[in-house]
């Protein structure tokens, strides 16, 4: 029996990156992935421009697929697909566009459309909420700890809209509910920056890319999901094996019915590599 190609679908912040966002701390993890011929797919709330920054630093050009803004769009390098007619037949099932060097499957709404849908909410709450249009790179850096250079890239949203509450309590819950009533999703990793998107999530994008990857490798794959937050739950429920870098009880409870899951309280690239090694070794032994 042929060995299955291992595919890792991973969040970035808190997983491949720690709170310093220093790409150099992830080099060992990236080397491990490349050495073992593992296909790495990045699945993040980050923008295309942020993820491309790390792809360049990690030397992953045309070697990785990435998913942006909580599942809003999947970027597949054209060189990775080549002229494989089977892949193009699968892609026809999805709404995709060709831009630059990418085939892009679009699930999300454009940022401008999201802004139109909540324009009245923005106007009515400008004293209580810092909205995307009001952010400066300096303010975003102050709130998130991102360097200014990366904060500029983080604010170049294509399929999502950001906000930061200036007050606390029930009023914020009411605003979030009003946004959701309009058919939009609201999520947060830190409770500091909230992300508004269309009606999609990381799990939807994960299912789509697994279907496509199965065609590339003739269904001969095994998938590992790695995440650390609420917005990763739908992704972790979808993969064959899952790694949760967070032992928060509420997240664990959401994944209580998931088989083949490994949980650790530690986060960041070193723990990412430790846990991935464990699961990869387990998969290899079973093959």
UniProtKB/TrEMBL annotation:
- Taken from the record, one Pfam family name reads Hydrolase_3
Has keyword Heme?
no
* BP GO terms, sorted: mannosylglycerate biosynthetic process
Gene Ontology MF annotations:
magnesium ion binding; mannosyl-3-phosphoglycerate phosphatase activity
Alphabetized SUPFAM superfamilies for the sequence: HAD-like
Record keyword Cell inner membrane present: no
Q: Which UniProt keywords apply?
A: Hydrolase, Magnesium, Metal-binding
Q: Name one GO cellular component term.
A: cytosol
Tell me what this protein is called: Mannosyl-3-phosphoglycerate phosphatase family
Originating organism? Staphylothermus marinus (strain ATCC 43588 / DSM 3639 / JCM 9404 / F1)
């Amino acid at each position: 029996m042929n060995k299955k190609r291992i595919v890792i679908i991973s969040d970035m912040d808190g997983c491949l990156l720690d709170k310093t966002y220093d790409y150099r701390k992830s080099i060992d993890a990236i080397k491990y992935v490349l050495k073992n011929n593992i296909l790495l797919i990045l699945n993040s709330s980050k923008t295309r421009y942020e993820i491309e920054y790390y792809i360049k630093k990690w030397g992953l050009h045309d070697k990785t697929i990435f998913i942006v803004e909580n599942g809003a769009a999947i970027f597949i390098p054209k060189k990775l697909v080549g002229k494989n007619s089977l892949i193009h037949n699968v892609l026809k099932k999805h709404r995709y566009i060709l831009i630059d060097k990418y085939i892009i499957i679009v699930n999300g709404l454009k940022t401008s459309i999201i802004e139109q849908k909540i324009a009245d909410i923005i106007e009515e709450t400008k004293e209580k909420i810092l909205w995307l249009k009001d952010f400066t790179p300096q303010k975003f850096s102050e709130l998130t700890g991102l360097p200014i250079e990366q904060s500029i890239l983080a604010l170049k949203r294509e399929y999502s809209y950001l906000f930061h509450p200036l007050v606390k309590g029930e009023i914020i819950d009411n605003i979030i509910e009003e946004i959701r009533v309009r058919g939009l999703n609201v999520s947060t990793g830190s409770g500091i920056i909230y992300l508004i998107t269309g009606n999609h999530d990381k799990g939807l994008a994960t299912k789509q890319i697994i279907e496509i990857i199965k065609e590339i490798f003739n269904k001969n794959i095994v998938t590992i999901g790695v995440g650390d937050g609420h917005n990763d739950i739908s992704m972790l429920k979808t993969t064959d094996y899952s790694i949760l870098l967070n032992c928060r009880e509420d997240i664990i409870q959401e994944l209580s019915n998931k088989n083949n899951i490994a949980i650790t309280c530690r986060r960041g690239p070193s723990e990412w590599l430790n846990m991935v090694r464990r699961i990869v070794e387990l998969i290899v032994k079973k093959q």
